Amino acid sequence: MVRPRHSWIIASPRRDQKQTAYHILVAGSEAMLKAGKGDLWNSGKIASDQTAHVVYTGKPLQSRMRCFWKVRVWDGDGRPSAWSDPATWTMGLIEEKDWRAEWIGYDAPVEAAKKAMAESDTPDGPVLPPPRYLRKDFDLGKPIRRATLYATALGIYEVRVNGHRVGDDYFTPGWTDYNTRVYYHTYDATDLLREGGNAIGAVLADGWYAGHLGWKSNSREHYGDKIRLRAQLEVEYADGSTRIIATDPTWKAAIGPLIEADFFMGETHDARREMTGWDAPGFEDSAWTAVDLASQVDPMVQAHPGVPVREFAEIKPVSMTEPQEGRFVFDMGQNFAGFVRLNVTAPNGEKIVMRFAERLNPDGTIYTTNLRRARATDTYICRGEGEEIWQPRFTFHGFQYVEVTGYPGRPGPDAITGIALSSKTPIVGSFKCSDEMANQLYSNIRWTQWANFIDIPTDCPQRDERMGWTGDAQVYIRTATYNANVAAFFTKWLVDLEDAQSAEGGFPDVAPRKIATDVGTAAWADAGVICPWTIYEVYGDKRVLERHYESMARWIAYCTNNSEGLLRPDKGYGDWLSIQADTPKDVLATAYFAYSTKLMARCAEVLGKTDDAARHHELFERIKAAFNKAWVHDDGRIEGETQTVYVLALAFDLLPEAVRPLAAEHLLENIQERDGHLSTGFIGTKNLMGVLNRIGRADVAYALFHNDTFPSWGFSIRHGATSIWERWDGWTPDKGFQDPGMNSFAHYSFGAVAQWMFQTIAGIDSDGAGFKRIIIHPRPGGRLHAAKASYHSIRGPIATEWKLQNGDYLLDVEIPANTTAIVIIPAAGPNVVTESGWPAGEAEGVRFLRMDQDEAVYEIGSGSYRFFSRGAESLMPFVNKAKRN
Ligand code: BGC
C-alpha cells in the first residue's frame, strides 16, 4: 500500500514556540475538506512535536485519486492554530494494469543511419539517426472537466498537444537502469484540450537510452537502439465519463526538421523542413508511416521520485570577440550547463554553427580538447522568413564560451542568450562574507552543483562522460544539502545506486551502471551507505534508511568477505587527484570500510535493530584494531604519511585516544612542510577542514581557505574560475592546461569545502538528525570580519549573521518554531554577553548552560535573537588580524 508522508513548517513571531500536538485531515474533495471532513483520513489530535514525514494511515489510496489536506497544530500553551491553507496531491498510476498505452516508435531511420555510417569515410563523425515525430488526431465530443497526461519513454521525449508543449521539463523520463525500471511523469493537460478536434504529438530522441554515453568511440545504444514512447492522455468529461487516448498502432510516425539530437554531440535543426501544424488537429499526415511496436526491454514503470530538469536562469553574454574572421566568440561570464537560444535573421539555407567550450586558447579561440569526443555543437539552418528564434531541446553542454560561425554580419549582444538547466532542486542556502574570494568560491560551488545535478549527480557536464560517479557524489552530498533541498533528487538516485549493486553486494563506481562497470571500489562504492545516511541526517528521513537497509548491509558483508584480516585490498582510485601525495589504497579502503560499518551500526540503531547495531559496532571495533595494528605506529605516524591518511583516521575515529594528538601533529607538520598547502584529492579534501576544526586548529583551516597559491581553492579563482575545477592544476601559468584527457572545469568534488563554510564560518549545523536540535557556532577566523548565511531546513529557516566591531562580537540568530539551538559565543564570562540589550542569561527564550573555556554556551528556543559579546575578538584564536581585509 502507498503511504504518502506529510510535512509542514510552523512559523511564529513568539520566542520559544513549540508544537505539542497536531491534527491532519485528508479529504477526497475540496468541498469535503472545507467542511472540515477528513473522509480519507482524520488523524484526530495527536500529541506530538513531529512536523516532518508524518505517515498517512487513512483509507487505502487508489490510482488517480485527488487528495486534499490540511493540518493544525497546538502550541506550547496548548492553544490550537488555525487550519493551514489546503494543499493537494494526486495519486499516480499505482498498478501496472493502469497502463493501457503501448510502447511505440519508428525504427526505419535507425537502419538508414547505420547504413550511412557504415558507408561513411569519417567514422569519427557519427551519422546519428534523427529524432522521431509521432502523432495522432482525436475528437472529444463533449465538454471536458480534466485531462491528465502520463508519459514515459525509452529515450527522451517532448509531448505536444494542440500546438503546445506539455510541461516545462527536459530530458524526461530521466536516466535509470532501463532494464529494471523507467519513470513516468504526470502533467495536467486540461487547458490544452477542447471540445471537438484535438491532436497529440511527441518528439522522441535518443537520450541516455540510445545516445552517446561515456568516453569510448561511438559509444552509443547502451540499452537498445529502438527508442520508444509510452503515453496516455486521460480525459474526464464534464458528465463524469472518461476516455483514454493512448499510444497504440493508430499513431503515425515521421522524421522532421530535427536532424540530430544527442547529449554529447549536440543538436541540428533544419528549419526549412519544419512541418507547421504537425502537432495540431487536421494536419495532413497521409505521408506519415505506421509506428513500430514493442520494446527491447521490459522495465517496471513507476512515478518519477526525483526532481525534473528545468530552465532556471537566462544568461546574457558579457563580451564578444572575433579571434578569426567570421568566428565570433561570446563570453557568457559564467560556466554553466545548458545551451543558448539563437536569435537570427538570415536568408534561407544559412547555416549557423554554435560550438561550446569552457575555456579559451591563448589566441582567443575556444579550447575544446578537454571535451574529448563530445562534439558539443548545435547547428541551425535558417528558413529565411524574418527573425528566427531557436533553442535545442534534447541536448546540453557545459560551457562558458560560445563560438558562432555562419552568422550574417556581426552578431549583436542579443544574438544568443544562455539558458541554464538543472534538476530544479529548491535553493535553500545563501552565504556571504567580508571576503570577496570566499564569495566567488561560494558562487563557483553553487554553479557547479547546478551544472552537474541533471537527473543524476554527474561528475561533469561537458566532456564525453557525464556519469553518476559514486565517489564524487558521496564526498559532495552534505555540501549539496546546504545549497538546495536535494531530498527528492537523492531519493531518486539512491534507487539507481541500489539497482546497480552487484549480486555479491558491491556498490558500483557509477550509477546507473554503464561504461565504468566495476563494483566495490573503496570510497566510491561506500556512497551506498554514506548517501542514505546523509539524507537521513539532514532531513530526518527514516524511510530512506528502511528502503536501502538490506542493500547497505549487503555492502558491509561484501567488504567483510573481500578483506583479509579485515584489511581491505583495493585497486581503485585512491585519493583521486591529490597533489604528490599517494595515499596507500588499502589504508584508504580499510578506513572507509570502518566508516561505513559505523554508519551501518547507527542506521540499525535508528531503525531499532538492536542486534544488528551491536554486531556492526563490534565489527567496527575489530576493523579499527586491524587498522591500527597494520598501519599506525606508536609515534602516531600512519602508513603513507599523507594528509589524507591522517584526515581519514581522525575523521572516522579510528585511533586510540592517546594516538590522536600525535596523528594530528603529523597532519599539521605535513601542511607546514608544504608551505601551508593542502595536498588532498577528492577523498581527503572532504574531511580535511572538519578535522582541522576538531583538533582545534581552525586557524590552519582558514589559512588553507584563504590561500591563492597552488594548490588551493583560491588559485583557480585568481585565474578567473567561475566554477570548481576537477583538478587543483586544471590550468597553471607555467604549464597551461592540464592533460586534456581528463580536465574538466566543472567538477564539484573540491567544492565540498562549502560544508565547512556553513558549519564553521556561518556556524549552522544539525545536532542529531533533521535540524530538530540545531547548533549555532560560528568560529570567526582568518581575515574575515563578517559573515551572513541562511539555510532553509526541513523545519524552517535558520540564519546567522555576525560581525566583529571595535573588538566586540555581534551575532544575529534565527531558528524556526518547534526547534531549539545550542548557541556558542566567545566570551570572557557569561556576564559580558547580552541578548537584545539584556543580560543574555535572563533574556526570553535563552538559557545559559555553561562556560567552555572562552566560550559561553546557551540554549535557545525558536525565534530571532541578537547576541553581543563585549571584547570577544581578543578571545578568538583563529582570527588573523594582520591579514584582515
Ligand atoms: C571522473 C571522476 C571520477 C573518476 C574516478 C573520472 O573520470 O570524472 O569524477 O570519480 O573518474 O576515478
Structure description:
This protein is α+β, with helices and mostly antiparallel strands and 885 residues long. It is 23% helix and 30% strand. Strands 18, 19, 23, 24, 25, 26, 29, 30, 31 and 32 form a ten-stranded mixed beta sheet that branches. Strands 33-40-41-42-48-44-45 form a seven-stranded antiparallel beta sheet. Strands 12-11-14-9-17-20 form a six-stranded antiparallel beta sheet. The N and C termini lie far apart (59 Å). Beta-D-glucopyranose binds at residues 459-460, 465, 469, 471-472, 573, 576, 742, 747.
Layout: helices, strands, pairs:
Elements: E1 5-6, E2 19-27, H1 30-34, E3 41-42, E4 46-47, E5 54-55, E6 66-75, E7 87-90, E8 104-105, H2 108-119, E9 132-140, E10 144-154, E11 156-161, E12 164-165, E13 181-188, E14 196-205, H3 207-210, E15 228-237, E16 242-246, E17 252-255, E18 258-262, E19 266-270, E20 289-290, E21 292-293, E22 300-303, E23 309-315, E24 319-324, E25 327-345, E26 351-357, E27 359-360, E28 366-367, E29 377-381, E30 387-390, E31 397-405, E32 416-423, E33 429-433, H4 436-452, E34 453-454, E35 456-457, H5 470-483, H6 487-499, H7 527-539, H8 542-561, H9 585-606, H10 610-631, H11 643-651, H12 660-673, H13 682-694, H14 698-706, H15 713-718, E36 731-732, E37 736-737, H16 753-761, E38 764-766, E39 773-776, E40 786-793, E41 796-805, E42 808-815, E43 820-826, E44 833-835, E45 838-839, E46 846-852, E47 855-860, E48 863-869
Parallel strand pairs: 13-22, 19-29, 39-43
Antiparallel strand pairs: 1-5, 2-3, 2-4, 2-6, 6-7, 8-21, 9-14, 9-17, 10-13, 10-15, 11-12, 11-14, 15-16, 17-20, 18-19, 23-32, 24-25, 25-30, 25-31, 25-32, 26-29, 26-31, 27-28, 33-40, 34-35, 36-37, 38-39, 40-41, 41-42, 42-48, 43-47, 44-45, 44-48, 46-47
Helix pairs in contact: 5-7, 5-13, 5-16, 6-7, 7-8, 8-9, 9-10, 9-11, 11-12, 11-13, 13-14
This protein binds beta-D-glucopyranose.
The site of beta-D-glucopyranose (BGC) has 10 residues, from helix 5.
